[in-house]
Amino acid sequence: MLQNVDLSREVVKAEYKRLKGDLDLKLADLQRQVKTLGIPVIILFEGWSASGKGTLINQLILPLDPRGFSVYSASGPTEEEKFYPFLWRFWKRTPTRGRLAIFDRSWNRRVVTDRVEGQVKRKQLHQALEDIRSFERQLTDDGVVMVKFFLHISKKEQKQRFAALRENTATAWRVTEADLWQNKHYDEYLAAAEDMLTETDTEYAPWTVIEAHDRRFATLKTFTTVIDALNRGIAVAGRNVEEAAVPPGQPAPTISALKTTALDHVDLSRSLTAEEYAGRLKEAQTRLRELEHHIYRRRMPVVIAYEGWDAAGKGGNIRRLTQNLDPRGYEVIPITAPNDIEKAHHYLWRFWAQLPKAGHIAIFDRTWYGRVLVERVEGFCSEAQWRRAYREINAMEQQLVHFGTVLLKFWLHIDPDEQLRRFQERQEEVHKQWKITEEDWRNRAKLDQYREAVEEMLYRTSTPYAPWTIVESNCKWYARVKVLETVCEAIRERL
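The structure assignment produced for this chain is given below.
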């Protein structure tokens, strides 16, 4: 992609002045339309050191309302950020609907700079490229307009710019040892950049190479590319175009396709005696407390996700799971309906923001699977959105596992009769009445719809790297012990 770029292209000053004013006005108008339509925009700049990224970003934001954009400079991760998957810090900076996020360097550093410096090995490189493509597709599928620039200059031009900067005492500090090392190893960086551009140039997030020897030419090309991208995004938003109900290559689920179901074969008669429960519970809790210390020392993140029927016993299960743990090493995260800020982001944004750092445990009481359960059944998202979510969730979980996360997913299963008995018990006992709401009864009235959604969720998202564990929960004692022992075994195997 870079080999055939004509770096001699330039624009004369008079022509630049004639065109630039009109482009400024167009860009400012488009920003207002983006805000009105609630379109999130990401503009990222990659390229060589001294290729003019900072200058171009400054030119780009001058016509804009500063209240409507944020600029992020993405150098290497901080010590804190190293404790999370590499995309975590970028998920946190994705824009709300109607805003622009401008990145001076981005997540692509992982597959260029880190690769050349030997921080990413071959297997990790393949995983990183896969994660980047998935990340960008998730955002663009959700309506993000993504514009990606690579600013290209020759090795000779870069060396000359470094020399000019170093001659001036006011700018000498801008040339670092890493910059000089990049020029010395220009060919290695060029090969890595070529691979990055080839592997991540997609129809939903294409790259635009900017010939950056002439800054006037680079500025005009950048502006026109952004304007074209915003015009296309506004046209799509205005027409309210939805993707096809079923993505290409994914057949529509049918009753016949799902005839053999996961829940039909669950043995809900499994139980424990009081003596068995007390002994196994204490043993598992003691073992988990010991493993918690190993997790911290080995910097291993653990994510435990709970889903299940109303009244299946998630709260009591979580209490027994955490009863003997050091509270400094875990966090229980209850998931409710998203607030206004969370609704203004991609639906996975709020879950990325609450992931545990390496060495800690995060326990989710309900999870990202709400998109394919309650949001699907209650109509809080479109069919296209919940169908797309299976792929997005699998990709997110794969990224967590790539990072080294121990990921456990539990579905707490009870039969309808046991659920009814527990609902009635909650209504009759004063100290339990707070647990039962009208929403619980409404959900029960849609039991068949929810069961269909659960079956498809288990079918499409139980993967080799993140399988579901169905927990027989008619007997709460059995369910608590099974979860604890499963968690212990998974952590022990990873250690």
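Interim note for the steering committee: The beta strands are 41-47, 69-73, 100-104, 145-152, 207-211, 302-308, 330-334, 361-365, 406-413, 468-472. The chain has 19 helices and ten strands.
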